[in-house]
Amino acid sequence: MLLKVHPRWLFSSNRAKQAFLLPGYLLLLTVCILPTLRAQSFNLPRPELITARQGLPQAFVPAIVQDRQGFIWMATRDGLSRYDGRNFKVFQPTTERASLSSSSMADIQTDSSRRLWILSEEKEIDIFDPARETFINFSRLPFFRRALGQERIEKYYPDNQNRLWLILGKPGKLICIDLATNRIHRFPELKSVITVRQNLGGPTWVATKNQLYRQDKQTGRLISWFTQPETYQSRPDTIQNLYVRPDGLLMLASNQHMTILHPQQGLLNRIVLPTYRSQWKYYFATDSRGNTFFNLDTLLLRFNPQQDSQRLETVAGSRYCRSMFIDQSDVLWMGTNGYGIRKYNLRAAAFDARPYNRGFQNDVVSAYLGVPADQFSGFPLLSSPYKFRYTFDKQGQLWFNAGITPFLRLNLATKQITPIQFPIKLDPSELNLTHSASLATDPDGRVWAIYDTLVVYQEEGRWKRFPFSIQSTVGLPVNQLVVDRQALWLATVAKGLYRVDRTTGQVRHYASQPNNVTSLSSNELIGLFADPLDTNLLWIGTFGSGLCRFDKRTGQCRRLTTQDGLPNNVVYSAIPDRRGGIWVGTNQGLCRVDRRTLRTRTYTQEDGLQADEFNRFHNLHLPDDRIILGGVDGITAFDPQQIGEDTYQPDVQLTDIQINNKPFKPDQDSLSVQAMPELVLPHDQNFVTVGFAAMQYNRQTKIRYRYRLEGLNDDWIYTDRPVAEYTGLRPGSYILRVNASNTSGHWSSHVRTLHLTIQSPWWGTFWAYACYVLLSLLIVYVLAQQYRRRLFLQQSVVFKQKESAHLREVDAMKTRFFTNITHEFRTPLTLILTPIGQMMQEERSKTDKRRLDVIDRNAHQLLGLINQLLDLSKLESGHLSVNESRGSLDEFIGERIQSFSAEAESKEIQLTYQSQIEGDYWFDMGKLECILYNLVANALKFTSSGGSIRVTLKPGIYLTVSDTGIGIPADKIDHIFNRFYQATSDSERSISVSKPEGTGIGLALVKEFIGLQGGSINVVSQEERGSTFTVFLPYRRVVAESLNQPVVEKPVTYQEDVAADSSTNIQNGEAPTILLVEDNLELLEFITSSLPATYRIHQATNGLQGFEEALKRAPDLIISDVMMPGMDGFTLCRKLKEDPRTNYIPVVLLTARTAMDSRLQGLTEGADDYLTKPFNLHELRLRITNLLERQRRFRDQMRKVLTSSDATLPATDTSVSNPFLEQLYTLLDTHLDDSTFGVDELADKAYLSRMHLHRKLKNLTGLSTSDFIRAYRLKRATQLLIQGQPVSQTAYAVGFESPAYFTRSFRQLYGLTPSDYATQAN
């Protein structure tokens, strides 16, 4: 530095000037001289290059600026580029709308209105509005062309008063344009103008080659600064450039000097610059710390009023700097002439990074510790930096070695090095790569050393041996040593950590335990460091297992790995500083760990490190807390106190928006994406992707992002990729908030907000909803009217339904009445017809027989009428169905016609039947019989003696009944099928005078039955000539595949001599027991008296009593009525068949219900037989006899199977299978060898009482329970004997208590001893 101050300034006759300049001179001494004594070196970090690979459109960058939003704008020869830290957006000339005048740009500057002023190489000026991304071709405006014509613009400057300063042509003429009024002010007195500058809130400065001017704010005149002779002589030589620092200092660059001018105090400071032959331009930029950077051809220099100027770096190649800018985050941007942009992180300058010169240990001693060459010429070639070990004694002197002897001791104050002899000589050729003598200092200041098994310490200038040997107790070799007042701590290469007690020599070993997370994470230890703030802690670096914080008191570790924030698990060093930080050197950067919170922060080359990968034992921690670390490429030194947290709070700006995966382009003259406060989209554009960026350009890889969309989710979404994506957004209003952290991970207080509205579709707008409301009201009105009408109709329907329900109820009551009355009629008819039948079989006089015949005939006629009434009631209730069966239609009709032959002969009426069909058909036998009976009976009734009746059956099933009777009047034919209608005439009354009048039911029933089967009936009649009834029935003919269907059974003819002697049912002197269940006492007594006297008969008058009697009596047969109070016959039958105590008893249902569904229901409930009232007494006796006989045969068969000597087991004989007996067989097989398993045990397992089991077995097998058990055991014994098993073993195997009893029982049952049986069988 060269300082030149003229004395005339200080001793001027002007006292006012003296009063002004004297304090300024003293200040100059303070500012310029004193800081020189404490100036320290400043090194730029490695630059980041931005070229075409990163998206820069062209490598010539003549200007760089930053707008108020934080975006970086770059002028290139291929357009205007906007950079957000990740992506470029390039603006180039286009014909679509106003754009750049030229893609080749020369300069960019900003004004106070956030606009960019662009100068092209063709010397045209454009104004660019970043908020709307619109251009104004300023130099093409009419007023500009009229005023300036074709004058060439060399330089320009927009100031803070909305004015534009222009330097025109090579003479350097100066003009000023008031942008508000477009008025132009010229300064013809100025020539050779170099530049115009203005500081914030200060005056405007104009520099020419030989003079500096300041504009007066009031008059607008330019006033020369160098006016006095002494100041004129002190002016710089030819001025090349002028720069105004943010603090107001002016820097005037000339060919040989950099002149620093303080305008308020009038002080000058002149810095002599190196002399260069070539000419250059100066470019300036100032960071937030007051450092001004400027270029000098290929040099980059730094100036600070508190320090000297300092040469920083030579720009690569022969090209030189073309632009320079420092952004808000202290990033230095240097645009080059063809080499793109060099970006320097100025906040990384706290690290002093240097490449190796002579190796780590030599560079540390000479370059960082300042030892002159005459004191230290360097370590020998055989020494290795991996063997570097050191310690500081109590005087602060450095003891160190590099694997050779003697050791060296350095006095940091005097820079004197003293050799220290070691008890043994270290030969580098005998040591491995890293094994060396480790050094440490105890709390009393004694220096300790350990090499192999030798442990010594310095006392009174001599080495003394440790009194205890570690040869057999410590796993050698030792990498690092720490000594406290109680013990020596040894970190070994592969055996973990050892503690050697200084008093007793006792050794304790700490090793890694896989299942113990509080043990060491590895036994391969690289570094061991004592904590200066807590003597109970050790920090241990491992090879591949992270960092361990070891507690001496507990012997436990707290492990730290990459999962806890370390950049890598290979830890070369863990140096604790005096401010609570642990500096961890790894393979992937330097990490600071907070010793209290264990929070981590990682530094890399981007932060100023020489390299990310460090080396083992390449570290030195100086007493002033400075740390020196060696890596693969060089040395990184730093003061932990200077490494602070990043306090910068970056803005976040939107960079681009995509709608439905297509770039969003705002309308012309509307705000651009980065300035857009809100975004309104139609409903079908609801897939939104928003890109954003943090306006911080240093260490961008450490910046994190977060965003949230209020209205959809209230929680932040964290990401490393600054993109917010939302798909399928529903119509509504949202607020998108995006935020970023700084490089230290602290979230910025600046949050970018975008109001997002997804419009509703036309059917979801206000007017649409208004229409919906009106339409809804209209619909409600219409519905209300319809509801009123419907309500009226419903009331009418309800009234009709009630009326119909009343009618149905009346009809149901009538149906129930008919059903009940017919049932009540059938019981008395049974008591009439059955005794009449018995009396008619006895020997009677002819008079009695004739009378009995009249009674029987009229009783059967009454039964027919009852049946017709029942059928009508079923028709009305809809319960009557067609029950088809297969049979010969011809034969069936012929048999029914034949039954009327006797009556026809008695009336002398010719009855003929003729059929023209053959084969079988499907038809309902009961309903066809009713149709034939009514038609033929009516014909016989209304045909006189001597007449004829002809019945014919034709193909297609046309049945015709013709008579020659009295006929039917024509006016009454339509009414003859109405219920209870009777067509009466004189002729009719004369014919039927001797006959009872009809009921008017027959023909109505005929028509109902025919319609039910899908047929039809037609009547042709003439009075006095007769009537013809033609019936069509759609019966189906039986085809071949239907041969297996059930056929119509012919009526059973019961002969008088059928043997029904009940004596056949008496077995072993026991008469059969029959239980009668009937609510009609008269019928109950009649049936009882009609059955053979050999039967033991028990009676019950209802279902409940019948079930109790069945359980009590265990009868052989049960006969039950169906319709009874309390419990009907169906329920009684079901309960009997479900109860294991009674399910073997046959049940016969005897009822007045003749319908097929009643029969099927009874059989479904388990009935063994079904008889309808009135019944034939002889048929009842036969059915009872057959059921009892079937029971007897089954009982005999079961007894035969159990008592025969055949070895076949009952359970395997399918011919006599019974589920209950099979259950008993299984129980007996389970307890076959248990002699105590008897009657009680079997009854208990079968869930029956002893009595019921006895009765059931007696009924099924004819054996008592004990005989049954014994017979089954003996039957099982026959199998074992045939298999060759000994008699005694067989006896015990089948449950006999002794072989003798077994033999006696076997002979008693089979007539042979077991031995003889086995012999015969084999």
Strand adjacency order, main sheet: 55-61-60-57-58
* Main pleated-sheet profile: 5 strands, mixed
CATH topology of the largest domain: Methylamine Dehydrogenase, Chain H
Number of strands: 74
CATH classification class of the largest domain = Mainly Beta
CATH architecture descriptor name of the largest domain:
7 Propeller
Tell me the name of the CATH homologous superfamily of the largest domain: YVTN repeat-like/Quinoprotein amine dehydrogenase
Protein name: histidine kinase
Domain HTH araC/xylS-type: 1222-1320
GO molecular function, one term: phosphorelay sensor kinase activity
Pfam family, one: Response_reg
Explain the overall architecture.
By secondary structure, the protein is α+β, with helices and mostly antiparallel strands. The chain folds into 7 domains: 7-37, no CATH class; 48-267 and 276-351, Methylamine Dehydrogenase, Chain H (7 Propeller), CATH 2.130.10.10; 353-635, Methylamine Dehydrogenase, Chain H, CATH 2.130.10.10; 652-667 and 676-756, Immunoglobulin-like (Sandwich), CATH 2.60.40.10; 884-1042, Histidine kinase-like ATPase, C-terminal domain (Heat Shock Protein 90, 2-Layer Sandwich); 1077-1175, 3-Layer(aba) Sandwich (Rossmann fold); 1193-1321, Homeodomain-like (Arc Repressor Mutant, subunit A). The chain is 26% helix and 29% strand. The chain contains 23 helices and 74 strands. A 5-stranded mixed β-sheet has the order 55-61-60-57-58, with no helix packed on it. A 5-stranded mixed β-sheet has the order 63-65-66-68-67. Strands 71-70-72-73-74 form a 5-stranded parallel β-sheet, with helices on both faces. Helix 13 packs parallel to helix 14. The longest helix has 76 residues, at 766-841. It is elongated, with a radius of gyration of 64 Å. Mean pLDDT is 83; it is low at 1-40, 986-996 and 1041-1069. Keywords: DNA-binding, Membrane, Phosphoprotein, Transcription, Transcription regulation, Transmembrane, Transmembrane helix. GO terms for molecular function: DNA-binding transcription factor activity; phosphorelay sensor kinase activity; sequence-specific DNA binding. Its EC number is 2.7.13.3. Residues 1073-1188 form the Response regulatory domain. Residues 1222-1320 form the HTH araC/xylS-type domain.
